[in-house]
Amino acid sequence: MSENNCDLKDIKQVMNDTEQNTSVLLPKCPEKPLASDCCGNGCDPCVFDIYQDELSVWEAECCQILRGDEPHSRTDESIEAKQLKPDKYTSFLVESIVQETPYIKRIKCKLGPKQKLGLSIGQHIIIKCKNPNGSSITRQYTPISSIDTVGCFELGIKIYDKGEMSQLIKHWSVGEEILVRGPLGTFSYTRNKYECLLMICAGTGVAPMCQVVGSLLEDDLEETRLRLIYACPSYSQLMAKTELDEWSQFWNFSVAYVLSQESAGSSQSYRYGEIVINGYVNQELVEKELKSCPLKTCVLVCGTPAFEAAVLNILKELNLSKDCIHKF
Asked: Which of 88, 108, 170, 211 has its CA 20 to 30 A from that of 17?
């Protein structure tokens, strides 16, 4: 921190003397995750990796404040000039909010007219919100829009009744600015790297799969077969259904919905030709899918920690090499 003429000792001194330094208000230090917050499935990045990154960002912001600088790029910066940065939060304008399902909000954020967000395939972002008490909270999100989308990026966010971040996001409105940094993620992909991508996801874990599918289908030279196994409680809760229906018209994309809580007789709402399986993702299903895939196949996994652990265990039981598996 020496290049900022500021170090952690300076920050702690100011925070310890807030009564004598009422003109200086520093953001609260990020809260360290509990040991139980780590799922143990080898996430990249892990919650503790994100915490260390947040700590570095927090220290830099505090030093900026102590120097009298603004810590964030905000409304004085033109939309065209806003760029995603891995070590600094940038504000992006919320352009529209649509209630896609009873639990999912589709949120579109504005970029410059010819601007892309700047992600590679499989990468995600960190969003930061402030609690009423002044503390900050961060969560990882993967835009569901293609990496080549120009002028905006879209998020599909599930609102949980008791979710700390959800209680803040559900009050977002059009015109609001949200703080974003990134990109993050180490999924490495080049055109036609695999013969098949088998994507197994649950709930909002479909978001990174949407980004992958949308990006690959936009490439006319891409010939990889894309197979999505999408687990969800019910048909009405499926996210990005419009996109999935459109992509199903492509020769190299197909999807099967695995619904665990679908009510009897609801099949009347299914589209003609859709593959709908009542139940859960199990070893029999995964083995069947793998047998129908070419040899050069990579399996992508995303969902709740319990879902991911179960799928990874199935893949281990089926003796699939770790080199052929990527967990978002």
From this structure: 88
The domain made up of 72-185 has a fold known as Elongation Factor Tu (Ef-tu); domain 3 (2.40.30)
pTM: 0.80
> What is residue 121's three-state secondary structure?
coil
Query: How high is the mean pLDDT of the chain?
Result: 84
Q: Can you tell me the distance from the alpha carbon of 131 to that of 179, in angstroms, rounded to the nearest whole number?
A: 13
**Which CATH class name applies to 196-327?**
alpha beta
CA-based nearest residue to 90, from 21, 159, 183: 183
The CB density around residue 136, as the number of other CB atoms within 10 Å, is 19
Report pLDDT digits (tens) over 272-295. Answer: 889 999 999 999 999 999 999 888
Are the C-beta atoms of 136 and 28 separated by less than 8 Å? yes
Q: Is 178 in contact with 92 (CB distance < 8 Å)?
A: yes
Sort residue 169 into left (φ over 0), alpha (ψ -120 to 50) or beta. alpha
